[in-house]
Design goal:
This protein has 142 residues and is an alpha+beta fold. The protein has one domain: Histidine kinase-like ATPase, C-terminal domain (Heat Shock Protein 90, 2-Layer Sandwich), CATH 3.30.565. 31% of the residues lie in helices and 26% in strands. Strands 1-2-3-5-4 form a five-stranded mixed sheet, with helices on one face. Helix 1 packs parallel to helix 2 (47-68) and helix 2 runs antiparallel to helix 3 (104-115). 32% of the residues are buried. GO terms for molecular function: protein histidine kinase activity. It catalyses: ATP + protein L-histidine = ADP + protein N-phospho-L-histidine. This is histidine kinase. It comes from Amycolatopsis arida.
Length: 142
């Protein structure tokens, strides 16, 4: 998979959740069997959360292309009343015995998520592969 397929050009406006399906499509075009699942109703997601969610998916798919030697990836976006949860899983080479090496991409994700009051978990999955899960508060009350 070529990383260029997942990069944005510098002249385009900032991307958000509306553009995640295009990221997944580009990953498929580049040879990764990627899927997107969206749960819940999108309602009142703040702009900063919207852009951060896109960047998490983009960086996760880029990391899969760069490091995972994965055949498949799944992207799940779950709109909840108080949070937006993003999860990206792959079936790559990571195992419980190979702890993640925090590179610039993971550190950048963690900084963005923390700045919004959210949480990020990035770790090998028990069944093999790697998972990135971010919870971003949306600041709504019911």
């Amino acid at each position: 998979m070529t990383l260029e397929a997942l990069r944005d050009d510098d002249t385009s406006p900032p991307h958000g959740l509306d553009d995640v399906s295009d990221l997944v499509r580009r990953a498929r075009t580049a040879g990764l069997d990627a899927t997107l699942t969206i749960e819940g109703r999108r309602d009142g997601v703040p702009v900063a959360v919207d852009r951060t969610a896109y960047r998490i998916v983009q960086e996760s798919l880029t990391n899969i292309a760069r490091h995972a030697a994965a055949a498949t990836a799944s992207v799940r976006i779950d709109y909840r009343p108080d949070a937006l949860v993003i999860q990206v899983d792959d079936d790559g080479e990571a195992t419980q015995d190979t702890p993640p090496v925090p590179g610039v991409g993971l550190l950048g994700m963690r900084e963005r998520v923390t700045a919004l009051g959210g949480h990020l978990r990035a770790a090998p999955r028990g069944e093999g592969g790697f998972t990135v899960q971010a919870g971003l508060p949306v600041g709504r009350t019911s």
